[in-house]
Design goal:
The structure holds 2 protein chains of 2 kinds. Chain A is mainly α. Chain A is built from 13 helices and 2 strands, in the order H-H-H-H-H-H-H-E-E-H-H-H-H-H-H. Chain B is of the alpha/beta class. Chain B has one domain: 3-Layer(aba) Sandwich (Rossmann fold). Chain B starts with 5 loop residues before the first strand and ends with a helix.
């Protein structure tokens, strides 16, 4: 259990703080944001494995959403970067497998493996950013309730809602445990030795389960019957949400079927 | 004569490892009465409150709340009349904001729209926490968390308030504010506490639990002046009464310059 893991999971509560902000993006209905995010992911993944330049216009989406929502760019980038090790792991063998020369950058010749690796990196960054923005601009309960109204079975929605609460609990417990550990192991750089991390993880699991059952009791004593209802469901506004969905779907279609970078270069080159 | 509003007879409960927690607990609480429930750690106070809300099932005994015998089938109906305030307010604040937390119970009762907003605002105002509505629960101070947790229960319009260590973690000012608040409630109140001064200020009647049994039940002042009883039950007189026993008090320590 490293310090970075603790810091990562500790950022869960601050992600929720961002979801409570008010902005044009925050006020969009959660269902609309799900639809646009899914359409974005489908568009990004629909490009060929060697396409890089064609995908670049899609960076407009995370940039515009970040700007309109008033979220700090470093906060979004930090959360999106958390997935980087997994993305690198997925594509890291491509340069070894596919050695066919494909593109030249001056004297440097890139093999197909390197091009597809960069393409995976770019596309994954786009998708992860869009999901991070979805989480940072939508209250968790609205996010999951929207899934229910989009047809996802309620049993799954409730599981997701509980998982979301459990992650919050875990985040708090990890934060407290790591703080207690670092105070009693000065000069060790904040890392937790492997021998200690086992019992520590076990203790964490037991404490969070105990706390989880107390919270469940608190919910049941206040009338919880298996469905989490939200006090402030984000109402669907045909004008606002219609514009949000149509504008972005139109742009994704444009970026998918028209070579925007090629058109732009053609215009610049006369 | 009307019977007690909360009436329990012969409650028995053992933890899953077999340790007995309640051994034949029987007592009644009248409508609008404020009763203190005191006892050492492990005396069975929290277990008793959980049993009263049907969150744990006693192995034997009967609980009657306002004429309804508590069972699995009647538990949802009984819970509508009861408000349980947990020892750790963080256990009760699980929604994104204080507003959502306070609204959680009324929504489950079917309250929506403007009626819901009014119910939440009224509950928050009654504990002086109207300004906290949009704050996330995990960002509040201890006293604010306690106020929000009480508002979350009051918003359901309970007739009975069950409280588990309501003053734990509060600073002196927050504790005083809580005592004034609790003393002013019209609800039937059963307050489990180690803070005997709070019990003395709020509850005219006190029940002492010792090893899962009722060791005493009577006027609070009488019980807190019975030093032998308190010592037998691993308790100490409240600070405000300690001078009456001729022992050393906090004030004496100050005078002696300790």
């Amino acid at each position: 259990m490293s310090g970075s893991f603790g810091r990562g999971i500790g950022s869960v509560n601050s992600t929720r703080d961002f979801a409570l902000l008010r902005s044009p993006v925050h006020s969009v209905d959660a269902r609309s944001k799900w639809v646009v995010t899914l359409a974005f992911a489908v568009t990004v993944t629909s490009f060929g494995k060697y396409d890089i330049s064609r995908v670049m216009p899609l960076f407009l989406y995370p940039f515009v959403i970040t700007a309109l929502s008033g979220l700090p760019v470093p906060a979004v980038a930090k959360r999106a970067a958390a997935a980087l090790p997994f993305i690198l792991l997925v594509g890291v063998f491509n340069p070894l497998i596919d050695r066919e020369p494909m593109a030249g950058l001056g004297p440097v010749v890139l093999s197909g493996g390197w091009v597809s690796f960069i393409s995976i990196l770019v596309r994954s960054t786009l998708i992860v950013s869009s999901v991070v923005l979805l989480a940072m601009t939508t209250q968790p309960d609205n996010l999951f309730a929207a899934l229910g109204s989009l047809g996802v079975p309620s049993a799954l929605v409730v599981q997701l809602q509980f998982m979301n609460r459990y992650i919050g609990l875990l985040a708090g417990e990890v934060e407290r445990t790591l703080r207690a550990h670092s105070l009693r192991s000065p000069g060790k750089g904040g890392g937790v030795p492997v021998l200690v991390s086992g019992p520590m993880l076990g203790g964490l699991l037991l404490r969070t389960m105990d706390r989880g059952s107390r919270i469940h009791r608190a919910m049941v004593s206040r009338g919880f019957d298996g469905a989490v209802r939200t006090a402030r469901p984000s109402p669907f506004s045909p004008r606002r949400d219609g514009l949000f969905i149509c504008a972005w779907l139109a742009y994704f279609a444009l970026a998918r079927f028209v070579d925007l970078p090629g058109v732009l270069l053609g215009v610049i080159g006369g | 004569m009307r019977g007690p509003y909360i009436d329990m007879k012969g409650l028995e409960y053992s933890y899953p490892d077999g340790t007995p927690a309640l051994r034949g607990v029987s007592f009644g609480v009248g409508r609008g009465e404020a009763v203190g429930l005191v006892g050492a750690n492990g005396a069975g106070k929290s277990t008793l409150l959980l049993a009263l809300t049907g969150l744990i099932e006693p192995s034997s005994g009967v609980i009657d709340i306002g004429g309804t015998v508590l069972s699995k089938g009647t538990a949802p109906e009984v819970r509508r009349r009861l408000g349980l305030i947990f020892q750790d307010p963080e256990d009760q604040l699980f929604m994104p904001t204080v507003f959502d937390d306070v609204a959680f119970g009324p929504i489950n009762q079917g309250v929506t729209g403007e009626a819901l907003a009014a119910r939440v605002a009224s509950a928050l105002e009654s504990v002086g926490a109207g300004h906290l509505a949009d704050r996330p629960g995990y960002r509040l101070s201890g006293g604010e968390k306690r106020s929000a947790a009480i508002a979350a229960v009051l918003s359901m319009g309970p007739e009975i308030l069950l409280m588990d260590e309501p003053s734990s973690g509060l600073d002196p000012k927050g504790r005083r504010g809580l005592i004034d608040l609790l003393a002013g409630f019209p609800h039937t109140r059963l307050i489990a506490a180690h803070d005997l001064d709070l019990v003395l200020d709020v509850c005219p009647r006190t029940i002492v639990l010792h090893r899962g049994e009722v060791a005493a039940d009577g006027p609070t002042l009488e019980i807190f002046q019975d030093r032998a009883l308190l010592e037998r039950c691993s308790l100490e007189p409240p600070l405000s009464l300690q001078g009456l026993f001729g022992g050393r008090t906090a004030a004496d320590d100050v005078t002696l310059g300790r």
